[in-house]
Amino acid sequence: MDSATLAGAVDDLKEAIMKRGDWIARAASGATVGVCLVLGGLSCSTVPLPSAAEGDVRAALDRVRSWSYGEDRSPLIEAEQVLNRCGTDRSRRIAEQELLRLAGDPQAKREVRQFAIAQLGRFGGEQAADLLLKLLDDPALGDDAGMAMQRMRNPAVVRRMVAAMPAVSPAAQARLCHVVGLQRVPEAVACLRQGLESTDSGVVARVVWALGRIATPEACEALTGTPPDRLRVAGPAAWEALLSVLDAALSRQDAACADHALLTLDALSPPDTVRAAALAIVQRASASTQVPVHASALLASTNAAYQLVGLQLLRERAPDSVLVSLAGTASLLSPSAQIGLLGLIEDRRVSGAAASIHHLLRQTGEPAVRLAALRALATAGNAESVSVLVQVAASEKGTDAERVAARKALARLNAKGADDALVAMFPNASDPVLTELLRAAGERGTTAALPWAERLATHSNPSVRMEAIRQLAALSGPGDLDRFLAGLLSAQESDLATWWAAGEALALRQPRLRERWLPAWQRAASGSVSRVALLGLAGRIQGREVLPVVAGAIRSADAAERREAVRALSNWKTADALPALMEAARQEDAQTRRLAQRGLVAVLRSCAMQPSERLETVRQIAPLLEFPEEQKVCLAILADIPLAGAAQLAAQWIDRAEVRAEAEESVLRVARGLRPLPAELRPVLERIAQGGSSPERQRDARALLEN
Amino acid sequence: MKTTTYSRRTFLRRCGAGAAAISIVPARVLGRGGWVAPSERITIGCIGLGSQGQGNMRNFIAQPDVEIVALCDVERGREGFAKGLHAAVVTARQQYEKTGRPVSDQQFAVYHDFRELLARPDIDAVSIATPDHWHGIITVAAARAGKDIYCEKPLTNSIPEGRAVVDAVARYGRVLQTGSHERSNDTCRFAWELVRNGRIGTLREVEVRLPTSEPHHQRIRAATGPVRPSEPPETLDYEFWLGPAPWHPYLEETTHFGWRFVMSTGGGEMTDRGAHVLDLVQFIHNNDTQMPVELRAAGRRAASPLYDAFMDFEFEFRYADGVRVHGRSEGDRGLKLIGTRGWIFIQIHGGRLQADPPSLLRERILPHEEHTERSPGHHRNFLDCVRSRRKPVAHEWIGYRTATICHLLNASMELGGRPLRWDAEHERIVGDSEADRWIRRPLRAPWTI
After folding, report:
1. How many Cβ contacts (< 8 angstroms) between chains A and B?
2. pTM of the full predicted structure?
3. What ipTM goes with this model?
C-alpha cells in the first residue's frame, strides 16, 4: 500500500469514527500518519499502522542528534512516534541497531545519548545489554545505563549482567545489584555474597538490599552468615532485608531459615517498629488458632508498637466472637487500645458488642473513647442503642462533637426494632429529647413518627415546635399534604418562615404539594393572614400551577397581600414572573413599586436567558427603575451581555450622575468582549476617553479605540 | 548455617519482656503509667514545602491536637520566595498565631534531608508534598521508620513504587492517607450513596472531563525556547531535588511547580487533577475493589522546549462489569455518572453536584441502605485514623490503584495510543512485554525503594 492510499484509508476511518461520536481519532503529528483507536466493541484493537521503515528510524534519530536541553522537543516527540510504530520484530531490530549507534557514539551529546539509552530500556536485547554494561562506569551516563537495565528482563540479558558483576567497578556493581535485586535474580546470590566483602559501603548496602529482595534460602544464608557489624553498614536496609527473608522463609515453611533471620535481626538491635513488624510476620504465618489470643494479649501491651501489631492481627485473624469478648473487658485496656478496638467493631459491624459499648460509654470520661464508641454504635448498635444515643444527643453535659456523633449514629443505626424504640420514647420524653427524637425520625425516614411531628408542630417550646415543622417536610407523604397546608394556615406568624422552608423542602420531595396549594388558596379566600401565609409558601414552592394566582394577587386591595405576592414573585427562578412584576412596578403604592423594582432586577439576574432576550427584557424594565440601587444592578446585568446593543443601552445612563461610573464601566466591559470593535460604539467610547469619570476609564476607552 | 537454640518463640518472648528497656516510643503513645494518652498531640514533620506542602501544613496546624515539630525541604528558601523552608517557617508561625497558639521560629526543627527528619523518634506522622518523583521513596522510608503518612496524590510516580508503598505500609502497620481530598467531601459521599443505592438505576458509563485550559496550562503551552539551562540557585540542592529522576540540567520553570508537566518528575494533568477525578470513578463505581481491565489513551504532548506531558488527550477504559469510562482534556472538570434512570455530575474541585432528574439531589438515604464513611475533613480523617488505626478514606490501596490508572493511561499515550490490558492480580500488562517494561519506571542510583 502506498502512502497516499494509506493516508486516505486512515482519513476514511477517522471520519467514520467521528460520525459515531465515541472517539476522535487524533493524528499524533503532521509528520506521521497518526494513531487511530477504534472504540465501540469491547475488545481493544488498534488500526494496524504502517511499521516504521529503516529510513524513518534513522532520519528521526538523526534529527534527535541536533537537539540540546532547553530546545524545542519536537525531534524527540517525532522519534518517539516513529519508534512507537516499530511493531514487528524486524523493525524493532532496526530500531535497536540505530539506537545502539546513537547511544554508543562518544561524539553525540549527553542528552541525545540519554534519550537513546532510555529507549534501549524498552527495546533492547543482548546487544544493548553489552553496551549498557560498558556504560555503567561512565560518569555522565552510568545512571542512565543502570536505569535502562532495570527495564530489561530477558533471561539472556540477566545472565550477562550476573556474569559481569565481579569484574566491574564498585559504582557499576552497585547499579547491577539494584537491577538483580529488582528482578529478584536467584542466580546472582553467589556474586552478591562476594559483594558483602566489599570495602565500599554503598555496594554492601545495595547487596544487602538485593539479597533481601531475592530472599531464597541461599540469600538467607548469605545474610545470616554475615557478621552483624558488617550488616550494620547497610543501615535500615539490613532490617528490611532480614524481614523479607523471614517472610519468605515462613512462606515456604523453612523454620530454620526463619529462626536464623530472627536471630540476626535481634543481633542488630533494631527499633521497636522493626521488631513489631517481625512479630506480625511470624504471627501472620502461623496457622495456630491461638493467634487471636496472642493478638488480644498484644493489644493489652503497654508498648505501642506491639499494641498496633495486636490490633492488626485482630483485624486479620480474629472472629467476631473474640471481639465481643474483648469488648466485654475493654475497660481494662488503655484508651488507645479501646479506640482501636471500637474502630474494628465499627468496621466489622459486630452487633454482639453493643451492650459492652453502652457500658463503656457510661463508664469512660475520655472524650476520644466516647467519640469512638458513639461512632461504633452507628453500625454495631441495637435497639437499645437508640435510647443511649438520644440521651447523649440531648445532653448539655457532653461536647458538641459528642452530640454530633450521636446524631449521626442515630441517623444511620440499622438495627432491628430501632424505629419502634424511637417512636416508643415520644410519650415520656423531655423537651430536649423530643427535639432529638424528631430530628432522628426525620433523618431516618421513620414515618411512624409523623403523627408526633404533627402534634408537636404546635408545642409550646419553640425548639421542639420548629424541629417538628422541619421534620414534617421529611416525613409527609402525598396523603399528608392537606394536613401540612392546614398546619401552615393555623401557624403563628413567628413560625411562618419555618413553615415556608419546610414547604419548599416538601415540594421538592412531593411535587403534588403545588397541586394542593390552589384548593387551599380557594378555601382561605376570606382570611388575609392565611392568604399571606399561602403566598409566602408559593414564593418557595413556585411552579406553573401557582403562578397565575400569585400574579393575580398583586392587584389585591389588601396591601399586605399585595406586597407578599410581589415578594413571592421576586424569588421566582424563571422569567415567567417578570410581566406581573412589571405591572406591580407601575402601581401607585410606593412600597409595592419599590419591592417590584427590586424583584425585577433580582429575577432578571438569576434566570437563564439568551443574551438577545435578556437585552430586550432590560430595555423593557429600564424605564421602570426609579432608584440608583436597582439601576446599578441593571447596568451590571448589561455589562455581561456580549452585544453592542447592551453597551448602547448602558450609554444612555452616562448622563445620570448617580450611576455614571457604573454606566461607563458597563460600556467598557461590553466593548472589551467585542472584536472587532463595532463602529456604533466608537462615539460613546470617544466620549468616555475624553471626559470619563476616572482616568482609568479614560485610558481603557482610549486603548479600546486604538486597538 | 549457624546452629542456634534461638527460635521464634524466644524472639516473641524477648519482644514482650525486653521491649520496655529498648523501646523508642513516640510522644503520642506513652502517657502516665505507660498508658496511652489519646489527648496527647500528634507530632508531625512536613516534607516538601512548596505551595501544596504549606497548604497541608496549615490544615494540620488548624487541628487542635497536632503539633508541627519539623520542616524539611531541599529548597532552603530565600527572601521573597514563597516556597521552601524559609517561607514555610513564616507560614507556620502565622498559622499558629491565627489559631491562638503562637509559637517561635525555634518551634520547628528544619531539615534538608528527609532521612534526618525520619530518624527522629518523637515524630508520629509525616506530611509529604514533594514533587511526585519523590513520593514513593519517602513514603516507604517513612513507613519503615514507623511514621504514619499523609502523602499528596498521586501516591507514587510509577506502578511498582505504588506496590512497594502498599507493602511497606502493611509490613510496618502504618496509617496512610493519600491526598485525594475530594473523597472527604460530603457531596461526593452523597453521590456514592445515590449511585450505590440505585437512584440512577444501573451505572452504565462515566464521562470524565479534565480541562487543560487554565492559566497555568496556558503558560505550559506558551513556553517557548530555546531556554538556556542555568546554575541552580545556591539555596537549592538540585542534585537532591532530582533524586531518583533521570539527570537533566536545572531549568527554573520545570523545577518549581512546572515539574508536574515533565514526565520524569510528574505525570501531567492525568496525574495532577486526574488523580482526583479518576479516584472518584474508582470510589463510586466499585468502592475501590476493582481495576479496569482495558485502557487506552491518545494524546498530544506539550509543544514546548521545557515540558513533555500530554496536554490534549482522550481516553477510555472499561471494567470487567462492562462499565466504560471515557474522558477528554476539555469541558467542566469533573465526572458524570450515567445510569439507566438518570445522571449525576460531580464538579472538581469542591464537589458541586448536578443531576437529572434534579430531585435526585433531594433523595434521602435510609438507615437500611448502603452508606459510606463520613469524613470530617481529609486531614482530620487522617488524624482520627492515626489514633484509631482504622483505614483512612483514601488509604494506601486506594492511592495505589488510582495512581495506577493514571500511569497506565499515560503509558498508553507514551506508547502511541496503544491499548493496554491490565492484569490487576499480577500487576502486569498482558500480552505486551514492551509496554510492561515501559511501565516499570526505573530509579536513578543510589535510590531504591
Report:
1. 280
2. 0.84
3. 0.89
